[in-house]
């Protein structure tokens, strides 16, 4: 009945953050580290004013950066013709205009799917053209289209650098992951058929316009996965020791305390079996009142179950089975286990029992709450600060490693030759769109488009890849 807000283990937190940082390069070097927290937690009464600009072609600003053109939107015919044009280089590595379409629309989709509901706070009117609005997150006065273009080029550099480093290290993906990557084209065909598209090409066009080919999307995938998996493994392999984590927390203890995390705070793991008053279940325990006889019947049953368990081996395993067989709580399927319980999460009586300072493994008892009688079995506890400090330190080291690798390479972009395809965000892709037509930045995750957002789905795939690597490491 109680709310069980599970938390990831330290390594999982760190790896997930690393994957997100690599994928959403829109945040790297352009937005402060605390951006996502602001979007999630800050309440803003008034949004940033949306500022419209009249773009000019061909030049609108510095020819050496993303402001070189006022608008990069072009007709399908022009973008298709420019598909093989190299628009960015990094040593011997190149990015074509066709490949750029994938990266650009990935940036737009990931941003809007993550922060779409907060778009107005950043000065983005999703009903207006991207290339005619000043980006509220930019210090350069660039448009949203220019902003996403710079982000896309940043993302390509990140992917290409990590892929190059993986190649230098002779890194090979796990056979199962390599097979999944090899099957990408077939998976796209299956998804296309599932959602009513004639082909994978049509599905791709729906997401990134007519300027990119399946090969361009596969190029993106073949850069992203090896590089990211290799990088994540390096982060895990160089994880901090317990001594380093404690030193890091001590050094930053004041800052943690200011954010509500004290050294004495702890996570508790506990198993329980919930026996409700007679006649109660999850549908009525919060809304109906049960008489003394019903509560007494619940108490008697709870005591009988506990006595039967005491007469057995009194082990954690048998208690878990007791929960599976008898608990009326949703945790029954997991043997009644609640992990990472923190103060303020559970009802008072339940919490008071859990956080009693005298608790030790194997302690048990019965606790009455407004939901019924809880048979309790104490599993253990650990400091909260260890998890947060380890996660923060791993993220710091991951960022330092990433910056070190990026510093080894220099990217140059040919902004004059960049053209961006038109995508009708409402669900249709225009065959031929005049060059003066501008992209409408509607939120991409609506009921019509959600099933077929191929590129945005890479975000989830990235996290799965990171979790896959970590899970393998933890079980070696």
Biggest sheet features: 4 strands, antiparallel
Ends distance? 36 Å
- What's the number of structural domains? 2
Spatial strand order of the main sheet:
4-3-6-5
Mean pLDDT: 80
Work out the helix count. Answer: 16
Order of helices and strands: HHHEEHHHHHHHHEHHEHEEHEH
Helix content: 40-55%
Q: What are the segments in which pLDDT stays under 50 over at least 5 consecutive residues?
A: 1-46, 426-476
- Sum up the overall morphology in one term: elongated
How large is the radius of gyration?
27 Å
Please indicate the percent range of residues in DSSP E strands (runs of 2 or more): 5-15%
Write a structural description:
The protein is an alpha+beta fold. It folds into two domains: 311 residues, no CATH class; 120 residues, Chitinase A, domain 3 (Roll). Helices cover 46% and strands 9% of the residues. It contains 16 helices and seven strands. The protein has a four-stranded antiparallel beta sheet with strand order 4-3-6-5. The chain has a three-stranded antiparallel beta sheet with strand order 2-1-7. Strand 1 and strand 2 form a beta hairpin. Helix 4 packs across helix 5, helix 7 crosses helix 8 and helix 10 crosses helix 15. The protein is elongated, with a radius of gyration of 27 Å. The N terminus and C terminus are likely disordered.
């Amino acid at each position: 009945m109680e709310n069980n807000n599970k938390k990831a283990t330290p390594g999982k937190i760190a790896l997930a953050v690393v994957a997100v940082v690599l994928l959403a390069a829109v945040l790297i070097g352009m937005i402060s580290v605390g951006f996502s927290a602001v979007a999630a937690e800050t309440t803003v009464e008034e949004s940033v004013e949306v500022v419209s600009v009249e773009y000019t072609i061909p030049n609108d600003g510095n020819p050496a950066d993303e402001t070189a053109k006022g608008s990069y939107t072009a007709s399908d015919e022009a973008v298709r013709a420019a598909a093989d044009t190299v628009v960015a280089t990094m040593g011997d590595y190149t990015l074509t205009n066709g490949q750029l379409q994938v990266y650009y629309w990935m940036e737009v989709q990931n941003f809007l799917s993550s922060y779409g509901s907060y778009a107005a706070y950043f000065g983005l009117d999703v009903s207006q053209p991207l290339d005619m609005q000043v980006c509220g997150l930019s210090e350069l006065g660039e448009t949203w289209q220019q902003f996403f273009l710079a982000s896309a080029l940043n993302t390509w550099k990140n992917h290409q650098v990590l892929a190059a480093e993986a190649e230098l290290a002779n890194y090979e993906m796990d056979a199962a992951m390599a097979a999944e990557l090899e099957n990408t084209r077939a998976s796209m065909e299956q998804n296309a058929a599932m959602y009513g598209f004639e082909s994978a090409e049509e599905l791709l066009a729906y997401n990134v316009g007519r300027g990119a080919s399946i090969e361009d999307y596969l190029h993106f995938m073949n850069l992203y996965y090896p590089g990211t998996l290799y990088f994540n493994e390096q982060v895990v392999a160089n994880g901090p020791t317990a001594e380093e984590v404690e030193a890091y927390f001590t050094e930053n203890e004041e800052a943690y305390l200011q954010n509500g995390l004290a050294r004495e705070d702890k996570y508790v793991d506990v198993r329980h079996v919930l026996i409700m008053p007679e006649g109660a279940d999850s549908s009525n325990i919060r809304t109906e009142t049960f008489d003394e006889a019903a509560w007494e019947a619940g108490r008697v049953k709870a005591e009988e179950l506990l006595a039967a368990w005491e007469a057995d081996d009194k082990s954690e395993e048998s208690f878990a089975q007791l929960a599976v067989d008898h608990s009326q709580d949703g945790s029954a399927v997991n043997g009644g286990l609640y992990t990472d319980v923190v103060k303020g999460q559970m009802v008072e009586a339940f919490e008071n029992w859990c956080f009693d300072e005298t608790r030790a493994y194997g302690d048990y008892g019965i606790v009455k709450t407004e939901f019924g009688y809880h048979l309790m079995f104490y599993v253990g506890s650990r400091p909260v600060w260890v998890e947060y400090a380890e996660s923060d330190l791993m993220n710091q080291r991951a960022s330092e490693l990433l910056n070190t690798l990026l510093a080894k390479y220099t990217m140059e972009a040919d902004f004059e030759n960049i053209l961006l395809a038109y995508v009708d965000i409402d669900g249709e892709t225009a065959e031929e769109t005049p060059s003066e037509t501008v992209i409408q930045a509607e939120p991409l995750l609506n009921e019509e488009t959600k099933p077929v957002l191929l590129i945005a789905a890479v975000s989830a795939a990235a996290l799965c890849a990171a979790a896959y690597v970590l899970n393998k490491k933890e079980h070696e």
